[in-house]
Amino acid sequence: MLQRWWGAGVLMALALAWLVLEERHAAPEAVSLKRLSAQSAEPAEPGSRRDSLRSGGSVPALRSASSGSEAGPGAPRLAPPARATEAPQVAPAPARPVAPASAAQPANTPAGGTPTDMERAAALVAAGERDAAAELLRLTIRETRELAVAARAGFLLAPLLSNAVEARQYLAIAVEQDVVRAGEYEQLGGLLRGLNAQPRESLQPLLRTETCTVRSGDSLWKLCNRDWPDAYGVSPETGLIRLVNGLASDNLKAGQSLLVPLDPLVLKVNATEHALTAWLGDVLLGAWRVGLGRDDRTPRREFRVDVKQKDPVWYHEGRAIPFGDPDNLLGTRWIGFEAQSDLRGFGIHGTWQPESVGGNESLGCVRLRNAEVEELFELVAVGTRVRIR
Known about the structure:
Elements: H1 2-25, H2 33-40, H3 49-54, E1 82-83, H4 115-126, H5 130-143, H6 147-157, H7 164-176, H8 184-196, H9 199-202, E2 209-213, H10 220-231, H11 238-245, E3 257-261, E4 265-270, E5 275-280, E6 283-289, E7 292-293, E8 302-310, E9 314-316, E10 319-321, E11 333-337, E12 343-344, E13 347-349, E14 360-362, E15 366-367, H12 370-377, E16 385-388
Parallel strand pairs: 1-12, 4-16, 7-14, 13-15
Antiparallel strand pairs: 2-3, 4-5, 5-6, 8-11, 8-16, 9-10, 11-13
């Protein structure tokens, strides 16, 4: 009898220990639009902590588990049917063959609502009180009744967070709620590069993935183009797999485990803000400033990528202008869109005029700086959807 009770006691102790460990290692609650909306609907408490943070005088540096000292997008009218001449006229041929940057602080002027809170948070950051700024921004998110204000506060909060998953989610919400302004996409891109440098912490927990074990004779190109389309229904670009798995090259070893993202890459162009973002499902992967067509020549619709070229030749007005010729405007990469009934010759490319990025100077295509189109080129597979609005 004593042995029976002793055994039951041991089992109860083990069960309790397991529950404690599970609680300790549970993932932090995901940031989402639903959660942010619910938080911003909560009424503000009188005499709130935000009041003390907004008051003058010295503000103590506050410490919390989720903030730390590390730094841690109305569519315009559719352009008339046009025929762009920037595209190299070649048969589609999928080419099968990402870099960290410092996380710059976003601009401090809010996109409407409670400007004093945003400015106060910026002043706290400038004074080195990053944790106090993070608390003020969290209070703003919780107390405001306007979702756009909460999203804006989250955008400013993201660089202050040591939790990389939470930071990426706040940045995605800010883009979805259109509170990121044109020039800030440069800073957003830098923040995302920094997060992408730590995919295990900032990216992998958010993605829908399957795990593939590398076999002898496998190559990354073979897996992406032959094996995974049948096994998982996806055909990602090799560079995307490198980014998701934190690989320095395409070299693989038998027995190695790879995460395979199940959501396809989608590119979204915000013509109003001259910005391009890359998404895996609802996970924000990258952001870049872009140049667009003069006289509203960039069409607002959805395309699919059907050709990729390095060092492209530009076929223009009957001429084949080779790569490197000063008259070739395509830069170092061409990501061409499939032709539609009333449109052909559109795509994404580089430029030898980086100062034109952010303006409307192309013949209708989307242009990026050469270094940035090269970065995007590595992630985009033939078949990728591109939505321009």
